[in-house]
Amino acid sequence: MIAVLVRDLRLAVRAGGGFGLGLAFFLIVVVLVPFGIGPDTDTLRPVAPGILWVAALLAALLSLDRIFALDHEDGSLPLIATAPLPGEGLALAKALAHWLTTGLPLSLAAPVLGVLLNLAPGGYLWLFVSLIAGTPALSVIGTFGAALTVGLRRGGLLMSLLVLPLYVPTLIFGAEVTRRGAEGAAVATPLMLLVAITLLSLAALPFATAAVLRVNLR
Amino acid sequence: MAGLRVTDLAVARGGVPVLTGLSFTVAPGQALILRGPNGIGKTTLLRTLAGLQPPLSGTIAGAGEDAAYASHADGVKAQLTVTETLRFWADLYRHPLKDEVFADFDLDTLRDRPGGTLSAGQKRRLGLARLAVTGQGVMLLDEPTVSLDAASVAGFARWLTGRHLAKGGLAVIATHIDLGLDAPVLDLSPFRAAVDAPGGADEAFL
To answer: Which residues in chain A are contacts of B71 at CB distance < 8 A?
Structure first.
């Protein structure tokens, strides 16, 4: 598992990897939105939590199709599949690598970029907390989607269509945590639901990913 | 290791049966060369032996966990150096990365070169070396000598007999050229499945 993780991280940060891609996309969306809807604090502040979360979610989606497709194209995947590493371990390692290269940097960058959207002072901490708690689910669900569409030509579009509905609960509760935090209200309920979704995906989806991968490699 | 024993195997590709009634054994320390025209099912057979797809019928004993399958593609990442690539495969298969593999596949001078700058033949040598570092006992090789020059083919045959087979490993090789191995040849043509053979994947749905 560590071997796969180290290799994927190496591939991501070297030239042509996906590391900067999601982060740059996030930055662009967050910078462009105030131009689009005007710099007025009263307009920006209410939409800031939602925009930040949607932008982070789309940024995470951007690099999903690289998870298995690149290994499939160059013929690494069959040899990885016959390794002593079980498919579930492979799925977890891939998801973790994806999270370390997208979810974690996005969570760290989001509070900084929140300033551009006039996020209310109370919201920064909860924005960070909700992203840290929610993005692992995005990576695990995304890895499942990537496994579903591995081997399909131009599978990226289909994968987005399959994965986006599964992202909705995370988005709703993640944005809700941030919104309530920004307004100074209690965040416990949506935060617990957000963490529950993440834990549930972490527990169940690696098995589904491994099963789907086995079928797709036939 | 007890060797590879295949009994009455039938395999399908894309839901169409391609080979049927196939039986053979490969003893430890032996290699088997697969021959047959394009599309006969050599790759499908190797993938089935590797456990990547289930057989239609019949049994395979002795491959399973101990198999390493290399497709036509080399699995070389442009951004990783030769050493990093081999280190990854060795770690993944929990096998030590021995220094001799660089000499065996003539990669000594290429250790720190990124995969993207290698020539086709050098990539192929790296692709074969990645199999060697897995340390698996059953090597399933699909056209291993594509884009290799004569010297590299001889080097590969030397590695196969001297390092792999000598240690009790076995190999099933689909190839069209003469590797200079002392190995039995299995022609797959007689085992071609009839066009309307039963067992296609969609049968249950039709």
So the answer is: 75, 78
